[in-house]
């Protein structure tokens, strides 16, 4: 099965895709739009893209393309703890390193560690953590290290000298599996954290309390929202749509009625699916 | 006055900063954390960082650092239409170009134009639109073009061959001015689009309808929300804070009471400021 993902090779998204689709043929894409296009044209059956808190890609684009492409739905979500490691060429010594390469956000997320342990070592921005790791592997003679993930260390044969150097233990990135056919995604090897529904809600006009009215539909039914994000429509400033996650299985008459009531107040609802949330390793 | 901004030179954020602070001494920073640190340590008096829909930086980091750094508040917001232009070295001809360089998201945002007008021309990812423009200016002999903004074209002396090649006319990026002293930001040269308040709200526990209860406080007072975004706390999965924008001037007893009521239901509120929204040019 062909699975598009936001590249490059050894990106966090590939790390997610390999766990979600251990037997898939993974096709790296340059950006999030290309992932959606690959699914839309049938070039790939599914795609793995970041939904939240990624250092790769602008995840607001994922929401915008979900809105723009109603035929594409969500099959599953993966949550990965972000773990950054400091790695060098195996024939080098960490004492000799005079520059650390990585994506600027990965350097920022490891700020505290780098600023205490390698205060005097210069840092160099790179387009991705994976590209930085590749560059270190190809340039033994430069005295450089990279901040990247375990997968990149394995792929490029680098030696990890400091593990888990990120400032926050509990920083997570969320990925979603998107497809057009929305088959039921199952995976017996990954831990299931829960179940949720995703939907896009478009309010017909921007009026005070409109979002509150939408949320009332969920609130009295005790349907818990686990994510909400407003996005400006491309039709102009001041018009919005919302991405909402409702926790739990979507199964009974309350859920169906909630959608009917939303439509009765002229909200447009694109139900993206009821799907499982899996814990991924980093 | 020293103004930190998310670089590199000729980034969209610099384009915003030059309009917001025409007389400021602009200090480019490698990432959003460095912008916050510059303000926190006093190295810069203010900083300009992206808040929404940026192709530079991960804007969720802006929300996280606002949460992590309660001393830093918001003074102003700038909204800039995203305009991408195709540009070449002035001594080259567009007919000879065989590769187009840019940030992957800028290439994605110009997908439709590039795919129709320059279908056969290869594309190459670069770490930023500004860096791509600089590379084109320094490599006359390579037959390359860049997708970047007007500011980069001016700075690096490039010739614009196609203007406004972005797929959506109405795509905007939002920037905020942050500082510790939160002086009243004024600018007579920029058009004022409106006024708004920003706040971070932390619900003490994750219970169904909790967000709905918070929004009720605003809804019956007819205070309109113009942005809402949930962010996972770094303490673990399932705990959230919310960034909320309330439209309009924050002035009367209704507003004060809204905050008091939020506190009375044990919500922690960090009021980030009441500030103007300015229209920027791209």
Automatic annotation (TrEMBL), chains A, B:
Record-listed E.C. numbers:
4.2.1.51, 5.4.99.5
Q: Give the metabolic or biological pathway.
A: Amino-acid biosynthesis; L-phenylalanine biosynthesis; phenylpyruvate from prephenate: step 1/1; Metabolic intermediate biosynthesis; prephenate biosynthesis; prephenate from chorismate: step 1/1
- In chain numbering, where does the site feature Essential for prephenate dehydratase activity fall? 173
GO BP: any one term: L-phenylalanine biosynthetic process
GO CC field: cytoplasm
Q: Which reaction does it catalyse?
A: chorismate = prephenate; prephenate + H(+) = 3-phenylpyruvate + CO2 + H2O
Domain named Prephenate dehydratase: residues: 2-180
| UniProt GO MF annotations | chorismate mutase activity; prephenate dehydratase activity
Name of the encoding gene: pheA
User: In its UniProt entry, what is this protein called?
Assistant: Bifunctional chorismate mutase/prephenate dehydratase
Name the keywords, alphabetized: Amino-acid biosynthesis, Aromatic amino acid biosynthesis, Lyase, Phenylalanine biosynthesis
Please give one Pfam family short name.
PDT
**Domain ACT intervals:** 199-282
User: Which InterPro entries does UniProt cross-reference here?
Assistant: ACT-like_dom_sf (IPR045865), ACT_dom (IPR002912), Chor_mutase/pphenate_deHydtase (IPR008242), Preph_deHydtase (IPR001086), Preph_deHydtase_CS (IPR018528)
Q: Does the keyword Hydrolase apply?
A: no
